[in-house]
Design brief:
The chain is an alpha+beta fold. It contains ten helices and 20 strands.
Length: 389
């Protein structure tokens, strides 16, 4: 049974000061818990090692996809393949991603559920909020596996070192009317600022794109246009490819022409596709960190049906050993092809809620947080911080 440590003080005041009211659960149940999950140092180290090992395996799987032209299996739109290959061969940095893992606590083995490589969120919760929970209750910040902000800053410094002649200007963009996305983008911007970048924010509909000149935004204060050498987008690559094919073509040429570096790079779509789980199982069959995954339901065993590019638990179905649906979550992604992954055992508390670990990777494993909810963790799940005790 997961061990929880309740706290008398919450970071609500600090969150309101930051403008992160969306975390306070005013419309639904509380998103943040007033307790931390207690784990051992050995468990924290095991999560870190698992993420480091899994990323190495993903890189090998990505090379396999490129070498054997398996893009169609991954559901990758054809109009992104050239940019994917270019960004891979150009060794463009994968800024960060988040591994979703089953187990790792309560004596359960760690298993990869998926890797959020392109537009991973939960940055503020992991980097700031759970630290604030420690701070508000007089605990030592070293009692967490949490160097996420510092490691992101190091990633941005590495970007500058990798190309010292490129202007360190970064434009960060998300979609409108998504305060959670705004908070994630703001945290990344602060990490970049600490690394010496000149930063600015603009919703994607405010950004100007040119295949010859790169990326621009118009300043509100004087109406002048300013260009940026780097663009971070919290907008999925597959959305750009399908919904905005002209933008995909412009970005392909702008990146090839060295006018802009896009973060995360296009090749992260290889890691984002759930079909990479099937390829990992092919390359590393029966690996201790992996779950059997196939393009067809797994005969005679319970499995999870996932769409290739679903998010927040949408369009997931749990199947029993006969292939019958036990439970499912609806969503907007059902047109995508599906994969079938063996069911993992998740830690569960007395109230019947399940725990799933999220380990951030930014050049190395650097931060741990947990989500808690039903058998299928969707956008109603809670965030639970941790305490190494």
């Amino acid at each position: 049974m997961p061990q929880l440590k309740p706290f008398p003080h919450t970071p609500d005041q600090q969150l309101r000061h930051l403008g992160w009211d969306w975390m306070l659960g005013t419309d639904t149940g509380p998103y943040l818990t007033n307790e931390l999950l207690v784990i051992t140092e050995a468990e924290a180290n095991a999560f870190a090692q698992a993420a480091d090992d899994l990323f190495e395996m993903l890189v090998a799987a990505g090379q396999h996809v490129i070498d054997h032209n398996r893009f169609a299996e991954l559901g990758i739109p054809a109009n992104l393949i050239d940019l994917i290959k270019f960004s891979w061969d150009d060794d463009q940095i994968h800024l960060y991603g988040r591994f979703d893992l089953a187990g790792g606590i309560d004596g359960l083995p760690i298993k990869l559920l998926e890797y959020n490589a392109d537009t991973a969120t939960c940055l503020p919760e992991t980097a700031v909020v759970q630290w604030a929970q420690l701070n508000a209750n007089g605990l030592d910040e070293t009692q967490q596996f949490n160097t996420l902000f510092e490691t992101l800053t190091s990633q941005f410094r590495y970007l500058r070192e990798q190309d010292p002649d490129r202007d360190p200007s970064l434009l960060l963009s998300a979609m409108r009317d998504a305060p959670e996305d705004d908070a994630n983008v703001a945290l990344l911007g602060e990490a970049a600022r600490e690394a010496g970048f000149r930063i600015a924010y603009a919703y994607v509909d405010e950004v100007e794109f040119s295949d010859v000149e790169g990326i621009f935004r118009q300043r509100i204060e004087d109406g002048q246009y300013e260009s940026f050498s780097y663009w971070f987008k919290l907008i999925p690559w597959e959305y750009i490819a399908i919904e905005e094919p002209e933008l995909a073509a412009i970005l392909t040429e702008a990146v090839r022409n060295q006018q802009v570096v896009v973060l995360n790079p296009a090749y992260t779509l290889i890691f984002q596709s759930k079909a990479i789980l099937k390829i990992l199982w092919e390359l590393y069959p029966n690996h201790a960190l992996l779950l059997e995954t196939s393009a067809q339901p797994l005969a005679g065993q319970p499995c999870v049906e996932k769409v290739l590019f679903g998010r927040e638990g949408a369009n997931i179905r749990l199947l029993d050993a006969t292939g019958q649906v036990e439970t499912e979550v609806a969503g907007d992604y059902d047109e995508w092809a599906k994969i079938y992954q063996a069911r993992a055992t998740l830690a569960r508390n007395e109230a019947g809620m399940y725990y799933q670990a999220g380990v951030f990777y930014a050049g190395e494993a650097c931060g741990l947080g947990f989500r808690r909810g039903g058998q299928i963790l969707d956008n109603t799940a809670q965030f639970v911080g941790h305490l190494i005790g």
